[in-house]
Design goal:
Elements lengths: L10 H5 L7 H15 L11 H8 L3 H13 L3 E4 L3 E4 L5 H7 L13 H6 L26 H14 L12 H14 L9 E4 L2 H12 L5 E6 L6 H7 L2 E8 L2 E2 L1 H7 L5 E4 L13 H14 L2 E6 L14 H4 L5 E6 L11 E4 L2 H14 L5 H12 L2 H27 L5 E3 L6 E5 L6 H10 L5 E2 L12 E5 L5 H19 L5
The structure holds pyridoxal-5'-phosphate.
Length: about 500
Protein backbone atom coordinates (compact mmCIF):
# COMPACT_ATOMS: atom_id res chain seq x y z
CA UNK A 1 0.00 0.00 0.00
CA UNK A 2 1.39 3.43 -0.94
CA UNK A 3 1.08 6.10 1.72
CA UNK A 4 1.00 9.73 0.61
CA UNK A 5 2.62 12.34 2.84
CA UNK A 6 0.23 14.73 4.53
CA UNK A 7 0.48 18.48 4.11
CA UNK A 8 2.11 18.60 7.60
CA UNK A 9 5.33 17.36 6.10
CA UNK A 10 5.60 20.70 4.31
CA UNK A 11 4.98 22.96 7.31
CA UNK A 12 8.74 23.52 7.95
CA UNK A 13 9.13 24.46 4.29
CA UNK A 14 6.46 27.15 4.65
CA UNK A 15 8.14 28.39 7.84
CA UNK A 16 11.59 28.73 6.30
CA UNK A 17 12.82 32.23 6.97
CA UNK A 18 14.18 34.06 5.14
CA UNK A 19 12.66 32.51 2.06
CA UNK A 20 15.30 30.76 0.03
CA UNK A 21 15.41 31.88 -3.60
CA UNK A 22 14.76 30.71 -6.20
CA UNK A 23 11.72 28.84 -4.85
CA UNK A 24 12.11 25.83 -7.14
CA UNK A 25 15.66 25.28 -5.75
CA UNK A 26 14.37 25.61 -2.17
CA UNK A 27 11.64 23.05 -2.77
CA UNK A 28 14.03 20.71 -4.53
CA UNK A 29 16.52 20.88 -1.60
CA UNK A 30 13.68 20.35 0.88
CA UNK A 31 12.33 17.26 -0.84
CA UNK A 32 15.81 15.88 -1.48
CA UNK A 33 16.62 16.10 2.27
CA UNK A 34 13.31 14.43 3.24
CA UNK A 35 13.97 11.61 0.80
CA UNK A 36 17.58 11.07 1.90
CA UNK A 37 16.67 11.15 5.58
CA UNK A 38 13.94 8.54 5.05
CA UNK A 39 11.09 10.82 6.14
CA UNK A 40 9.68 10.15 2.72
CA UNK A 41 9.79 6.38 2.52
CA UNK A 42 10.62 4.34 -0.58
CA UNK A 43 7.55 3.73 -2.68
CA UNK A 44 5.52 6.43 -0.96
CA UNK A 45 3.56 8.58 -3.32
CA UNK A 46 4.19 12.31 -3.63
CA UNK A 47 1.20 14.65 -3.73
CA UNK A 48 0.11 15.58 -7.22
CA UNK A 49 1.70 18.74 -8.62
CA UNK A 50 -1.67 20.54 -8.43
CA UNK A 51 -2.14 19.56 -4.79
CA UNK A 52 1.37 20.55 -3.69
CA UNK A 53 1.21 23.82 -5.61
CA UNK A 54 -1.94 24.68 -3.69
CA UNK A 55 -0.51 23.70 -0.27
CA UNK A 56 2.62 25.78 -0.83
CA UNK A 57 1.07 28.65 -2.81
CA UNK A 58 3.48 28.06 -5.66
CA UNK A 59 2.74 27.93 -9.34
CA UNK A 60 2.08 24.47 -10.69
CA UNK A 61 4.92 24.93 -13.17
CA UNK A 62 7.39 25.43 -10.31
CA UNK A 63 6.33 22.18 -8.67
CA UNK A 64 6.41 20.37 -12.02
CA UNK A 65 9.94 21.63 -12.59
CA UNK A 66 11.00 20.31 -9.16
CA UNK A 67 9.47 16.88 -9.82
CA UNK A 68 11.28 16.75 -13.15
CA UNK A 69 14.59 17.57 -11.45
CA UNK A 70 13.98 14.91 -8.78
CA UNK A 71 13.19 12.41 -11.47
CA UNK A 72 16.25 13.32 -13.56
CA UNK A 73 18.49 12.80 -10.50
CA UNK A 74 16.88 9.46 -9.63
CA UNK A 75 15.04 10.42 -6.42
CA UNK A 76 11.56 9.74 -7.73
CA UNK A 77 9.98 7.77 -10.53
CA UNK A 78 6.81 8.57 -12.40
CA UNK A 79 4.29 5.82 -12.99
CA UNK A 80 2.15 6.32 -16.05
CA UNK A 81 -1.32 7.63 -15.10
CA UNK A 82 -0.62 7.08 -11.39
CA UNK A 83 1.72 9.73 -10.03
CA UNK A 84 5.24 10.22 -8.65
CA UNK A 85 6.79 7.78 -6.17
CA UNK A 86 9.99 7.79 -4.12
CA UNK A 87 12.40 5.68 -6.11
CA UNK A 88 12.86 2.07 -5.07
CA UNK A 89 16.57 2.45 -6.01
CA UNK A 90 17.07 4.43 -2.82
CA UNK A 91 17.73 1.57 -0.42
CA UNK A 92 18.43 2.56 3.22
CA UNK A 93 22.15 1.79 2.64
CA UNK A 94 22.37 4.21 -0.30
CA UNK A 95 20.50 6.86 1.61
CA UNK A 96 22.95 6.61 4.48
CA UNK A 97 25.86 6.96 2.11
CA UNK A 98 24.41 10.16 0.75
CA UNK A 99 23.02 11.68 3.90
CA UNK A 100 24.81 14.89 4.81
CA UNK A 101 23.71 14.52 8.38
CA UNK A 102 25.50 11.27 8.97
CA UNK A 103 27.30 11.90 12.30
CA UNK A 104 29.94 9.15 12.17
CA UNK A 105 31.58 10.32 8.96
CA UNK A 106 35.25 9.32 8.61
CA UNK A 107 37.50 12.34 7.87
CA UNK A 108 39.16 12.45 4.45
CA UNK A 109 42.74 11.29 4.85
CA UNK A 110 45.56 13.55 3.64
CA UNK A 111 48.48 12.17 1.65
CA UNK A 112 51.89 11.71 3.30
CA UNK A 113 53.15 14.64 1.21
CA UNK A 114 50.58 17.04 2.56
CA UNK A 115 51.22 15.85 6.12
CA UNK A 116 54.92 16.59 5.58
CA UNK A 117 54.04 20.04 4.24
CA UNK A 118 52.41 20.87 7.55
CA UNK A 119 55.68 20.21 9.32
CA UNK A 120 57.79 22.79 7.47
CA UNK A 121 58.12 26.37 8.74
CA UNK A 122 54.90 28.21 7.99
CA UNK A 123 54.97 31.25 5.71
CA UNK A 124 54.04 34.63 7.13
CA UNK A 125 50.64 35.80 5.94
CA UNK A 126 50.78 39.42 4.81
CA UNK A 127 48.31 41.74 6.51
CA UNK A 128 48.05 44.57 3.98
CA UNK A 129 47.09 47.00 6.74
CA UNK A 130 50.51 46.57 8.30
CA UNK A 131 53.31 49.05 7.68
CA UNK A 132 56.83 48.28 6.41
CA UNK A 133 56.01 44.89 4.93
CA UNK A 134 58.93 43.56 2.86
CA UNK A 135 58.30 42.78 -0.81
CA UNK A 136 55.41 45.21 -1.33
CA UNK A 137 55.89 47.66 -4.23
CA UNK A 138 54.57 51.25 -4.27
CA UNK A 139 51.03 50.37 -5.29
CA UNK A 140 49.84 53.98 -5.35
CA UNK A 141 52.47 54.72 -8.00
CA UNK A 142 51.29 52.00 -10.38
CA UNK A 143 50.38 53.54 -13.77
CA UNK A 144 46.71 52.48 -13.71
CA UNK A 145 45.53 54.41 -16.81
CA UNK A 146 48.27 52.83 -18.93
CA UNK A 147 47.49 49.39 -17.50
CA UNK A 148 43.79 49.83 -18.20
CA UNK A 149 44.60 50.73 -21.82
CA UNK A 150 46.71 47.60 -22.10
CA UNK A 151 43.97 45.43 -20.58
CA UNK A 152 41.44 46.84 -22.99
CA UNK A 153 43.84 46.28 -25.90
CA UNK A 154 44.33 42.69 -24.68
CA UNK A 155 40.57 42.16 -24.66
CA UNK A 156 40.51 43.01 -28.36
CA UNK A 157 43.57 40.85 -29.09
CA UNK A 158 42.02 37.78 -27.51
CA UNK A 159 40.03 36.99 -30.60
CA UNK A 160 43.32 36.35 -32.45
CA UNK A 161 44.70 34.17 -29.67
CA UNK A 162 42.72 30.98 -29.68
CA UNK A 163 45.57 28.50 -29.64
CA UNK A 164 46.53 26.84 -26.37
CA UNK A 165 49.98 28.15 -25.50
CA UNK A 166 51.43 25.84 -22.87
CA UNK A 167 54.57 27.98 -22.61
CA UNK A 168 52.63 31.25 -22.48
CA UNK A 169 51.48 33.91 -24.93
CA UNK A 170 54.15 34.38 -27.63
CA UNK A 171 53.79 38.19 -27.47
CA UNK A 172 54.70 38.25 -23.78
CA UNK A 173 57.53 35.76 -24.13
CA UNK A 174 58.95 37.87 -26.94
CA UNK A 175 58.86 41.01 -24.77
CA UNK A 176 60.50 39.21 -21.85
CA UNK A 177 63.26 37.76 -24.04
CA UNK A 178 64.07 41.25 -25.36
CA UNK A 179 63.98 42.77 -21.88
CA UNK A 180 66.20 40.09 -20.33
CA UNK A 181 68.86 40.25 -22.98
CA UNK A 182 68.97 44.07 -22.90
CA UNK A 183 68.99 44.57 -19.13
CA UNK A 184 70.06 41.35 -17.43
CA UNK A 185 72.51 39.81 -19.90
CA UNK A 186 70.41 36.63 -20.10
CA UNK A 187 71.05 34.59 -23.26
CA UNK A 188 67.82 33.10 -24.49
CA UNK A 189 65.26 33.00 -27.25
CA UNK A 190 61.55 33.39 -26.59
CA UNK A 191 61.14 29.62 -27.15
CA UNK A 192 62.95 29.01 -23.86
CA UNK A 193 60.61 31.19 -21.81
CA UNK A 194 57.74 29.62 -19.90
CA UNK A 195 55.16 31.91 -18.26
CA UNK A 196 54.00 30.82 -14.79
CA UNK A 197 51.47 32.05 -12.28
CA UNK A 198 54.12 33.44 -9.93
CA UNK A 199 57.62 32.12 -9.48
CA UNK A 200 56.32 29.76 -6.77
CA UNK A 201 54.56 27.78 -9.49
CA UNK A 202 57.74 27.77 -11.55
CA UNK A 203 59.64 26.32 -8.56
CA UNK A 204 57.03 23.61 -7.99
CA UNK A 205 57.31 22.63 -11.61
CA UNK A 206 61.12 22.74 -11.73
CA UNK A 207 61.57 20.68 -8.56
CA UNK A 208 58.97 18.14 -9.66
CA UNK A 209 60.79 17.77 -12.99
CA UNK A 210 64.36 17.64 -11.69
CA UNK A 211 64.33 15.97 -8.27
CA UNK A 212 63.88 12.37 -7.26
CA UNK A 213 62.85 11.51 -3.75
CA UNK A 214 65.98 11.62 -1.56
CA UNK A 215 67.99 13.90 -3.88
CA UNK A 216 70.00 16.68 -2.24
CA UNK A 217 69.08 20.30 -2.98
CA UNK A 218 71.53 23.04 -2.04
CA UNK A 219 69.81 26.12 -0.61
CA UNK A 220 71.04 29.36 0.89
CA UNK A 221 70.82 29.67 4.67
CA UNK A 222 69.39 32.21 5.39
CA UNK A 223 67.24 31.98 2.31
CA UNK A 224 63.78 32.18 0.80
CA UNK A 225 61.38 29.96 2.81
CA UNK A 226 58.85 29.90 -0.05
CA UNK A 227 60.75 27.06 -1.76
CA UNK A 228 60.50 24.69 1.21
CA UNK A 229 57.11 23.46 -0.02
CA UNK A 230 58.38 22.72 -3.53
CA UNK A 231 61.41 20.81 -2.20
CA UNK A 232 59.32 18.83 0.26
CA UNK A 233 56.71 18.09 -2.38
CA UNK A 234 59.36 16.63 -4.66
CA UNK A 235 60.89 14.61 -1.77
CA UNK A 236 64.20 16.54 -1.96
CA UNK A 237 66.56 16.85 0.99
CA UNK A 238 67.64 20.39 1.80
CA UNK A 239 71.34 20.99 2.34
CA UNK A 240 72.06 24.44 3.66
CA UNK A 241 74.78 26.70 2.24
CA UNK A 242 75.92 29.37 4.73
CA UNK A 243 76.04 33.00 3.58
CA UNK A 244 78.76 35.61 4.00
CA UNK A 245 79.26 38.99 2.35
CA UNK A 246 80.47 37.25 -0.85
CA UNK A 247 77.11 35.45 -1.09
CA UNK A 248 76.54 31.75 -0.52
CA UNK A 249 79.53 29.64 0.54
CA UNK A 250 79.51 27.53 -2.59
CA UNK A 251 83.24 26.95 -2.04
CA UNK A 252 82.51 24.86 1.07
CA UNK A 253 79.53 23.00 -0.21
CA UNK A 254 80.84 22.00 -3.55
CA UNK A 255 83.61 19.95 -2.05
CA UNK A 256 81.31 18.16 0.44
CA UNK A 257 78.11 18.00 -1.52
CA UNK A 258 79.25 17.20 -5.03
CA UNK A 259 76.41 14.76 -5.48
CA UNK A 260 73.68 17.38 -4.96
CA UNK A 261 71.23 17.39 -7.83
CA UNK A 262 70.24 21.02 -7.76
CA UNK A 263 71.14 24.39 -6.21
CA UNK A 264 68.55 27.09 -5.58
CA UNK A 265 70.19 30.50 -5.20
CA UNK A 266 69.58 34.27 -5.33
CA UNK A 267 72.99 35.35 -6.70
CA UNK A 268 72.21 38.97 -7.56
CA UNK A 269 70.93 39.72 -4.08
CA UNK A 270 70.80 37.01 -1.46
CA UNK A 271 67.36 36.85 0.08
CA UNK A 272 67.01 38.39 2.62
CA UNK A 273 70.51 39.69 3.49
CA UNK A 274 71.08 41.38 0.13
CA UNK A 275 74.66 40.20 -0.52
CA UNK A 276 75.80 39.68 -4.11
CA UNK A 277 77.49 36.39 -5.07
CA UNK A 278 81.15 37.04 -5.95
CA UNK A 279 82.42 36.27 -9.43
CA UNK A 280 84.75 33.59 -8.06
CA UNK A 281 81.91 31.68 -6.45
CA UNK A 282 79.70 32.14 -9.51
CA UNK A 283 82.33 30.45 -11.65
CA UNK A 284 82.75 27.67 -9.04
CA UNK A 285 79.04 26.98 -9.03
CA UNK A 286 78.82 26.86 -12.80
CA UNK A 287 81.80 24.51 -12.94
CA UNK A 288 80.16 22.22 -10.37
CA UNK A 289 76.93 22.12 -12.37
CA UNK A 290 78.78 21.33 -15.61
CA UNK A 291 80.93 18.62 -14.01
CA UNK A 292 78.06 16.78 -12.31
CA UNK A 293 75.15 17.33 -14.68
CA UNK A 294 73.45 19.31 -11.89
CA UNK A 295 71.14 22.25 -12.27
CA UNK A 296 71.19 25.76 -10.76
CA UNK A 297 67.95 27.65 -10.28
CA UNK A 298 68.70 31.37 -10.26
CA UNK A 299 65.91 33.22 -8.48
CA UNK A 300 66.22 36.82 -9.67
CA UNK A 301 63.38 38.28 -7.66
CA UNK A 302 64.08 42.04 -7.59
CA UNK A 303 67.44 42.81 -9.23
CA UNK A 304 65.73 45.53 -11.26
CA UNK A 305 66.13 47.69 -8.18
CA UNK A 306 69.88 48.04 -7.96
CA UNK A 307 70.65 51.58 -6.82
CA UNK A 308 74.42 51.64 -7.15
CA UNK A 309 74.52 51.08 -10.92
CA UNK A 310 72.79 49.11 -13.68
CA UNK A 311 71.50 45.60 -12.83
CA UNK A 312 74.23 42.97 -12.65
CA UNK A 313 74.62 40.33 -15.34
CA UNK A 314 72.61 37.26 -14.43
CA UNK A 315 74.42 34.02 -13.63
CA UNK A 316 72.55 32.50 -16.57
CA UNK A 317 74.38 34.95 -18.87
CA UNK A 318 77.76 33.66 -17.63
CA UNK A 319 76.81 30.03 -18.16
CA UNK A 320 77.00 27.89 -21.29
CA UNK A 321 73.18 27.89 -21.32
CA UNK A 322 72.80 24.25 -20.27
CA UNK A 323 72.86 24.28 -16.48
CA UNK A 324 70.92 27.33 -15.26
CA UNK A 325 67.18 27.87 -15.01
CA UNK A 326 66.58 31.58 -14.58
CA UNK A 327 63.45 32.64 -12.71
CA UNK A 328 61.93 36.14 -12.62
CA UNK A 329 58.65 37.53 -11.29
CA UNK A 330 56.41 40.54 -11.95
CA UNK A 331 54.69 40.22 -8.56
CA UNK A 332 57.34 42.10 -6.69
CA UNK A 333 58.34 44.67 -9.26
CA UNK A 334 54.87 45.54 -10.63
CA UNK A 335 51.95 44.40 -8.48
CA UNK A 336 51.49 41.42 -6.13
CA UNK A 337 48.10 40.56 -7.65
CA UNK A 338 49.50 40.28 -11.17
CA UNK A 339 50.66 36.70 -10.43
CA UNK A 340 52.80 36.46 -13.53
CA UNK A 341 56.36 35.18 -13.57
CA UNK A 342 58.59 33.22 -15.92
CA UNK A 343 61.29 30.59 -16.18
CA UNK A 344 64.06 30.71 -18.76
CA UNK A 345 64.80 27.07 -19.49
CA UNK A 346 67.89 25.47 -21.04
CA UNK A 347 66.90 24.37 -24.56
CA UNK A 348 67.04 20.67 -23.61
CA UNK A 349 64.41 21.13 -20.88
CA UNK A 350 61.83 22.97 -22.99
CA UNK A 351 59.99 19.92 -24.34
CA UNK A 352 59.82 17.94 -21.04
CA UNK A 353 58.63 21.03 -19.14
CA UNK A 354 56.07 21.77 -21.80
CA UNK A 355 54.72 18.24 -21.61
CA UNK A 356 54.41 18.47 -17.83
CA UNK A 357 52.64 21.81 -18.18
CA UNK A 358 49.98 20.13 -20.25
CA UNK A 359 49.22 17.91 -17.29
CA UNK A 360 49.59 20.64 -14.68
CA UNK A 361 47.21 23.36 -15.84
CA UNK A 362 47.20 23.51 -19.62
CA UNK A 363 48.76 27.01 -19.57
CA UNK A 364 47.57 30.36 -18.19
CA UNK A 365 44.74 32.72 -19.05
CA UNK A 366 45.56 34.85 -22.12
CA UNK A 367 44.13 38.19 -21.02
CA UNK A 368 46.64 39.24 -18.32
CA UNK A 369 49.53 37.94 -20.42
CA UNK A 370 48.46 39.92 -23.46
CA UNK A 371 47.91 42.98 -21.29
CA UNK A 372 51.42 42.73 -19.85
CA UNK A 373 52.90 42.20 -23.33
CA UNK A 374 51.19 45.39 -24.51
CA UNK A 375 52.25 47.25 -21.35
CA UNK A 376 55.87 46.26 -22.01
CA UNK A 377 55.84 46.91 -25.75
CA UNK A 378 54.57 50.49 -25.26
CA UNK A 379 57.44 51.20 -22.86
CA UNK A 380 55.27 51.61 -19.73
CA UNK A 381 57.04 48.80 -17.93
CA UNK A 382 60.53 50.22 -18.50
CA UNK A 383 59.53 53.76 -17.53
CA UNK A 384 57.71 52.54 -14.41
CA UNK A 385 60.83 50.63 -13.35
CA UNK A 386 63.02 53.71 -13.91
CA UNK A 387 60.69 55.81 -11.73
CA UNK A 388 60.47 53.17 -9.03
CA UNK A 389 64.23 52.69 -8.91
CA UNK A 390 64.65 56.38 -8.02
CA UNK A 391 61.72 56.38 -5.62
CA UNK A 392 62.82 53.25 -3.76
CA UNK A 393 66.36 54.55 -3.46
CA UNK A 394 65.03 57.74 -1.82
CA UNK A 395 62.75 55.71 0.46
CA UNK A 396 65.62 53.49 1.52
CA UNK A 397 67.76 56.53 2.36
CA UNK A 398 64.91 57.98 4.38
CA UNK A 399 64.37 54.73 6.29
CA UNK A 400 68.07 54.51 7.15
CA UNK A 401 68.10 58.11 8.37
CA UNK A 402 65.04 57.63 10.56
CA UNK A 403 66.42 54.42 12.06
CA UNK A 404 69.77 56.09 12.70
CA UNK A 405 68.02 59.00 14.46
CA UNK A 406 65.52 56.97 16.52
CA UNK A 407 67.32 53.71 17.24
CA UNK A 408 71.05 54.43 16.81
CA UNK A 409 72.27 51.92 19.38
CA UNK A 410 69.86 49.11 18.65
CA UNK A 411 69.75 48.75 14.88
CA UNK A 412 72.69 48.51 12.52
CA UNK A 413 72.01 48.79 8.76
CA UNK A 414 73.40 45.87 6.75
CA UNK A 415 74.71 47.26 3.43
CA UNK A 416 73.18 46.03 0.17
CA UNK A 417 73.21 47.53 -3.32
CA UNK A 418 69.43 47.81 -3.71
CA UNK A 419 66.19 45.93 -3.21
CA UNK A 420 62.82 46.62 -1.65
CA UNK A 421 63.69 45.92 1.98
CA UNK A 422 66.64 46.53 4.28
CA UNK A 423 68.10 44.31 6.95
CA UNK A 424 69.07 45.90 10.28
CA UNK A 425 71.09 43.81 12.71
CA UNK A 426 70.22 43.79 16.42
CA UNK A 427 72.76 43.44 19.22
CA UNK A 428 73.92 39.86 19.66
CA UNK A 429 71.56 37.86 21.85
CA UNK A 430 68.45 39.91 21.02
CA UNK A 431 65.23 38.00 20.52
CA UNK A 432 64.11 39.28 17.12
CA UNK A 433 61.03 37.02 17.09
CA UNK A 434 59.77 38.50 20.38
CA UNK A 435 60.34 42.03 19.02
CA UNK A 436 58.42 41.25 15.84
CA UNK A 437 55.57 39.73 17.81
CA UNK A 438 55.22 43.01 19.72
CA UNK A 439 55.60 45.03 16.54
CA UNK A 440 52.87 43.11 14.76
CA UNK A 441 50.45 44.00 17.54
CA UNK A 442 51.19 47.66 16.75
CA UNK A 443 50.44 47.11 13.05
CA UNK A 444 53.99 46.59 11.74
CA UNK A 445 54.76 44.03 9.02
CA UNK A 446 58.51 43.73 9.71
CA UNK A 447 60.00 40.22 9.90
CA UNK A 448 62.63 38.67 12.20
CA UNK A 449 65.88 37.88 10.37
CA UNK A 450 66.25 34.62 12.32
CA UNK A 451 63.07 33.29 10.66
CA UNK A 452 64.94 32.99 7.34
CA UNK A 453 67.64 30.73 8.84
CA UNK A 454 67.28 27.00 8.72
CA UNK A 455 70.28 25.04 10.01
CA UNK A 456 72.91 27.79 10.43
CA UNK A 457 73.20 29.77 13.67
CA UNK A 458 70.97 32.80 13.07
CA UNK A 459 71.89 36.47 13.31
CA UNK A 460 69.29 38.55 15.13
CA UNK A 461 67.88 41.37 13.04
CA UNK A 462 64.86 42.97 11.46
CA UNK A 463 63.81 42.81 7.81
CA UNK A 464 62.07 46.08 7.06
CA UNK A 465 60.25 46.86 3.82
CA UNK A 466 60.43 50.42 2.48
CA UNK A 467 59.42 50.25 -1.21
CA UNK A 468 55.65 50.40 -0.64
CA UNK A 469 55.67 53.25 1.93
CA UNK A 470 55.99 57.01 1.64
CA UNK A 471 57.89 59.17 4.13
CA UNK A 472 54.88 59.72 6.39
CA UNK A 473 54.27 55.96 6.59
CA UNK A 474 57.94 55.20 7.18
CA UNK A 475 57.92 57.78 9.98
CA UNK A 476 54.84 56.26 11.53
CA UNK A 477 56.36 52.79 11.23
CA UNK A 478 59.61 53.83 12.89
CA UNK A 479 57.69 55.52 15.72
CA UNK A 480 55.88 52.24 16.36
CA UNK A 481 59.15 50.35 16.16
CA UNK A 482 60.71 52.75 18.69
CA UNK A 483 57.80 52.07 21.07
CA UNK A 484 58.26 48.34 20.52
CA UNK A 485 61.97 48.47 21.22
CA UNK A 486 61.42 50.51 24.40
CA UNK A 487 58.92 47.91 25.62
CA UNK A 488 61.14 45.05 24.64
CA UNK A 489 63.94 46.43 26.77
CA UNK A 490 61.73 47.06 29.75
CA UNK A 491 60.96 43.77 31.57
CA UNK A 492 57.92 45.36 33.24
CA UNK A 493 56.12 46.02 30.04
CA UNK A 494 57.65 43.40 27.73
C1 LIG B 1 63.20 35.63 -2.97
C2 LIG B 1 61.84 35.43 -3.57
N1 LIG B 1 61.71 34.57 -4.58
C3 LIG B 1 60.50 34.34 -5.12
C4 LIG B 1 59.37 34.96 -4.66
C5 LIG B 1 58.02 34.55 -5.21
O1 LIG B 1 57.50 35.36 -6.14
P1 LIG B 1 56.02 35.12 -6.72
O2 LIG B 1 55.16 36.08 -5.97
O3 LIG B 1 56.15 35.42 -8.16
O4 LIG B 1 55.63 33.69 -6.49
C6 LIG B 1 59.46 35.88 -3.63
C7 LIG B 1 58.25 36.54 -3.14
O5 LIG B 1 58.26 37.33 -2.24
C8 LIG B 1 60.74 36.11 -3.05
O6 LIG B 1 60.85 36.93 -2.01
Amino acid sequence: MHRSPSSNLFTPFLQQAPLQRPRYRALFNYLQQRILSGELAVDSRLPSTRELAEWLSLSRNTVKQVYEMLQAEGYIETRQGDGSYISAQLTPHRRQQHSRQQPSRQPIRLSTKSTQLQQIRPLYQHNREHLLLPGIPALDQFPWPAWQRSVSHAGRQMKFSQAQHLMGEPALRNEIAGYLSATRGVHCSMEQIMICSGSQQGMQLAFAMLINSGDKVLVEDPGFPGIDGAISNAGGIKVSMPIDRQGCRSDLMLTDQRDARLAFITPSRNFPLGYTLSIERRLQLLQWATDHGSCIIEDDYDSEFRFDGPPLTALQGLSDGHSVIYSGTFSRILHPAIRLAYLVLPVTLVEPFKQMRGFLDGGLASLPQLALADFMSRGYFASHLRRMRKLYQARRTYLRQRVAQCLPDQLQWEPSDGGMHSVFLLPQGSDDQAIVEHAMKLGLGIRPLSYYYDQQAPLAGLVIGFAGYDEAQINQGIERLTTTMARYHSPNTA
